[in-house]
Structures are given as structure tokens and as C-alpha cells.
Amino acid sequence: MSIGLALCVGLPALAQDEEADNVTAAYEENGRYFTEDDIPTFNVAEDGTVDWLTFSGFRRYHAECHVCHGPDGEGSSYAPALKNSAVDMDYYDFVDVVVNGRQNVNASSNQVMPSFGDNPNVMCYLDDIYVYLKAHGTGAIGRGRPAQKEAKSDTIQEDENACMGS
Fold first, then answer.
1. Exposure string for 118-130, b = 16+ CB within 10 A, e = fewer
2. 74-111 pLDDT, tens per residue?
3. Domain assignment of residue 51, yes or no
4. Within a domain: 162
5. Torsion angle defined by CA atoms of residues 61, 49, 19 and 57, in that order, rounded to the nearest 10 degrees
6. Domain count, the chain
7. Facing residues of 13 across strands?
8. What is the predicted pLDDT for the residue at 9?
């Protein structure tokens, strides 16, 4: 099997529509997977091995996001579930919400998502978090830490070092 093709084990059948294009990996570049529209996505091999970004996204999500949004993006009484946001929401809208925050305040709701645009622990791993949520939101991976992962590519390590200033 080609490592450049996504093998979305457990992925629900998708019609040939925008959602499928938002999920299916069309190519791989230095350990990162992308849709045909150049949107980051995940790769899960038949044996359950996830790409590095999905694994890293699990770790980063649980370090920065799960306090409000619940374990595995399942939501909480404090903030909504995010596991479907990476599937249902446009990638650039997702990035905008994380970078700039969002307020939904009305008579029955008072939800405020803070801005994380200045937080390198989120911004340096934003695609990782997005890819992890997308993989979980589609059902390609279940709850909990992925058991097996691809190795981190040199390019991903270099990008991380540059972003974190090391």
C-alpha cells in the first residue's frame, strides 16, 4: 500500500461531495497529508498506525484544548464538542476561530472562546490539532491515544523548531 494514499480505516462511507474532499488524502509531503485542495488531513494505515500530525494533535489537543472542550473533542458542560468541527467547518474558518477567538452571547448562551493567536503551544501545532479532530470526527480513529504512529519527519521537526524559536 502506498503511504501517500489515505487509508481511512473505519471511516464512514462518504458521498462524492465537499465532505469527502475535506477528508480524503490526495498526496503526502514530508510526513504531512493533504486533500486535493491542499487542506491538511490525516492518514490511518490498515493496522491503525496514524500519521505523525494526528498523533501529535492528540497530545496537543489534550494539553491545550480538552480542559474546556472535553477529552477527545467530545464536548463538556463548559464548551461544545469539537470533534466534528474539523470535518464540518472550513479549514480557514477553523483557523480563524482558534487564532481570533469567538463569542456567542445571547439570552440563552454565554460561550466565549479565547484567542490563541499568541500561544505558540497552540499555533505551532494548529494543523496537528485540526488533523487529529478531523480523524476522530470522521470515526477514522476512536477515543484515546493512538497506539501506533509514523515517525516524525525531519521537515516536521525543523518546522516545529523554527516555530518554537529553537
1. eeeebbbbbbbbb
2. 878 778 788 877 788 889 999 999 999 988 777 777 77
3. yes
4. no
5. 10
6. 1
7. none
8. 37
Structural domain including 65 reads 18-152
Contact between 133 and 143 (Cβ < 8 Å): no
pTM of the complete model: 0.82
What are the CA-CA distances from residue 158 to residues 20, 30, 149, 164 (Å)? 31, 11, 19, 10
- What are the cell numbers at 158? 525543523
What is the percentage of the chain residues whose pLDDT exceeds 90? 60
Can you give the CATH number for the domain in which 74 is found? 1.10.760.10
Residue in this structure with the C-alpha cell 523548531, named with its chain if needed: 161
Q: Is residue 103 classed as helix, strand or coil in its secondary structure? A: strand
Cα dihedral across residues 37, 84, 97, 160: positive or negative: negative
